[in-house]
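Same chain as my last thread, 203 residues:
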Amino acid sequence: MSKFPIDTGIAGKAMIATGTVGTPNGIPAWPFENQTGTYGNFLNSSVLWCGVGGTINVIPSGTSISSLKVGVKGQDIVFKVLTAGTNYSSGTTFPTTDSNPSQSSSPNIRVELTVAAGGIVNDIEIKDGGSGYNVGDIITVIETGRPGGSTDCTFQILKLERGIPTADESIAVKVQAGQYLPIAIDYITSITTITEADIIICK
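reply #2:
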């Protein structure tokens, strides 16, 4: 959250929406929140003013889908290996399944394994954190083509982080010319009969 309060009457900061419409990427769009010089489309509780009428698809502020931290490797803080499994391969990214599939959504967690003799897993690295998971979910690593009698590698999620939402989480808001959107938003996913140049992002 920005330290600047939301007020649709007065904007302390403003910028044109050029380059901010599209698939959420989690990278801040505001220069004062992003010192890298590479700007994304995360608007972090901004309000929008639109100069023409049309439809703006937005993701409201605070919308997120829980995911596993990418890059984590062999840590009992974020996940705990339950069964090491057998006959797995090293150096390849594998998909997984969730013990609670009704909650998780695409993309699923993907992992890379380090294995010992017999394909027994001795280390797991998270390559894609997936989305929509819960603490306590048990994840099974899938590798097709293993011989019959192989046992599966499973691990349990102990800690999650705020994930980047998908465009499926967006809502369509119809606006009139010269109108502020009535909600604070984190992303603009698409626009209809409006151009990026017609939108001013405010804080």
